[in-house]
Amino acid sequence: ICDWAAANSIRIVGVTGGGAKKYQRLLADKLGAPLGEVDEMSSLAAGLRAMIGMEPGPLQTPHGDQMVEFKPEVPTQTAILTVVGTGTSILSVEDGSHARVSGSCYGGGTHWALARMLTGCETHEEFSELAARGDQCQVDVTVEDIYGEATRELGLPPDLIASSLAKMDPDSSREDLASSLLFLSAWTVSQLACNEAVTHGASEVYFLSLIHISEPTRLLSISYAVFCLKKKK
Predict the structure, then answer these.
(1) pLDDT value at position 7?
(2) What are the contacts of 123-127 at 24+ separation with CB within 8 A?
(3) Is the dihedral of CA 72, 76, 78, 79 positive or negative?
């Protein structure tokens, strides 16, 4: 960033978030340019409004086992933006206005701490590879574990998760633990987002993350969670 700023004769650098305040003097010294601090939630909302009005490119959605480009049909409708950072913030974004409507202390920091503790992984890439090979049903309690053959009589899918990690033991594999944690995190943030979408009449839900949540395995998990929660609503 420093080299880029110097090469392009940048006169002012826009910054936002907690780091913009905590490391303001250090950033200014390193970049050699004055900082222009922008409100974090305002910048996120402005970025979403700009992005969903553009041609397809950065927006993708899972379709089967493939990622396909996606463009909202009506970009000015109310949308829910779920920001998974250290914690989670949820914004209701409209054309020209926005508001932080919810949030949770369960976020990227929580997910990554649990990932390291449960699997011993050292990188996000390693965790994603483990999760892709795992089977969460080996360590999660499913509806079928509770109801047995009566599950189908209730009209419920047998692999529906009733309790995450409830069957884990010292012999549980790293892969199965990673898969379970992935779905736990995906369902937790997705449920919060879907609840706010119903409350605010939003037709679209977007996820923004700084913890490599754009990897296909994780995107598919979130997409599946949103799909199931949407059907439930």
Answers:
(1) 73
(2) 124/211, 124/212, 124/215, 125/212, 127/178
(3) positive
Which secondary structure element, helix H or strand E, spans residue 19, and what is its range? helix 18-22
Q: Any residues with CB less than 8 A from the CB of 157 and at least 6 apart, and which?
A: 143, 151
16, 36 Cβ separation under 8 angstroms: no
Q: 184-220 b/e with 16+ CB inside 10 Å = b?
A: bbbbbbbbbbbbbbeebebebbbbbbebebebebbbb
Condensed to tens digits (0 to 9), the pLDDT of residues 29-69 reads: 777 777 788 888 888 888 887 777 644 445 666 566 666 76
CA dist 193 and 207 (Å) reads 9
Lowest mean pLDDT among 8-17, 109-118, 145-154: 8-17
- Alpha-carbon distance 203 to 17, whole Å? 27
**Which backbone phi and psi does 209 adopt, to 5 degrees?**
-145, 145
What are the residues whose beta carbons fall under 8 Å from the beta carbon of 61, sequence distance 6 or more? 67, 68, 70, 219, 223
Mean pLDDT of the chain: 80
> What dihedral angle (degrees, nearest 10) is formed by the CA atoms of 180, 183, 186, 189?
-70
